[in-house]
Amino acid sequence: MSRKHPKNQEHQNGLMQARQNDPHAGEYSIIKYDLIKVLVFNFIYLAAVLVLYYTNRQSHYLENWFSKVLHF
Length: 72
Prior knowledge:
mainly alpha; 85% helix; rod-shaped
């Protein structure tokens, strides 16, 4: 596989060497992945809340549904 992808092998060797030089590099990569995941989920939640808000402004379907569910 190293003959087909020599750049990939060099990249992996560079990462291994960087991780040996910096003991926190592994933690930083995990934190980076978690941060990206949190940002993506926050964007999805924000989009869902905005969709609910703007669709509910006209028809008030959420108020009707909650009044049925909560018996107000």
